[in-house]
Amino acid sequence: MSFIVLPVVLMGAMGVAMAIMLIIADKKLAVKENPLIEELLEALPGVNCGACGFAGCRAFAEEKVKNPTGPAFCPSGGENACKSISEILGVKMEIRKPTVARIKCSGTNDVSALVGDYEGIQDCRAAMLVYPGHKICPYGCVGLGSCMHACKFDAISLYNGIVRIDEEKCVACRACVNTCPKHLIEMMPKDSKIYVACSSNDSGGRVHTACSTGCIGCMKCEKACPVEAVKVTDFLSRVDQEKCIQCGKCVEVCPVQVIYDLRAKPAEVKETVSV
Residue 97 pLDDT > 60, yes or no? Predict the structure, then answer.
């Protein structure tokens, strides 16, 4: 019987000894974390969106503690988070012009020529491995909501074959911009209310066949702009948000009404515009 008990006792004693040694080693060799990291994590939103350029909030906090002289900017946390970060690190708060995501497409199902229905994985990137979308326009929104699923702030919804962005909920994290396989979503200054809701580079005739609200490159908007903020290149009108004075003259002359003015009354704004 002793031949069985003795080895068991010895193994138990060795296990206890090794556990004690590991506890001592953990305390002796432990790397103490800078308490500022936890303070920063409390100030950050904790959504790990990556808009700051780091993998997540902890990576941001660790880097800011190592290099506090860099920009203390958190798009998702907004001004309050930036203020807290600056106070914790003792650096000047960086003020940036608020931006929002806007989709440069107005091709809902009722204005677009369709080629058929897609049955498969409900993901824009997956669908594009098979075909460019259920619309004739190869530049149009696929409408399966990859950007919607990427958004952690419930700012994006699907409507009639296209996505809509709620600018009040958008925190400019860029998750949708990075997800869209057709690069249809662009960050724009929040106070700039005029933009072109189209991305097609096809000629006017082809655009008109594919979508009744697509830019036909007629150049009327370019000629009407008093400050040369609107340019038409590759059959597509583009608004330079830095030059735009929000006069709305381009909106007035657009024959297909693809230049949006978000200052319009709700009843006057198209259903595809983010409001």
Answer: yes
Fold of 36-89: 3-methyladenine DNA Glycosylase II; Chain A, domain 3 (1.10.15)
Sign of CA dihedral 8, 9, 12, 14: negative
* This prediction's pTM: 0.74
User: What SS3 state is found at 11?
Assistant: helix
Q: What does the pLDDT average to over 30-42?
A: 76
Q: Which amino acid is at 93?
A: M
The token duo for 75 is 């798009």
Tokens 């958004």 found at: 151
DSSP three-state, residue 238: strand
How buried is 206 (Cβ within 10 angstroms: 0-12 exposed, 13-18 middle, 19+ buried)? Answer: middle
Rounded-to-integer distance, Cα 168 and Cα 126, Å: 29
Cα–Cα distance measured from residue 119 to residue 66, given in angstroms and rounded to the nearest whole number: 50
Round the average pLDDT of the chain to a whole number and report it: 85
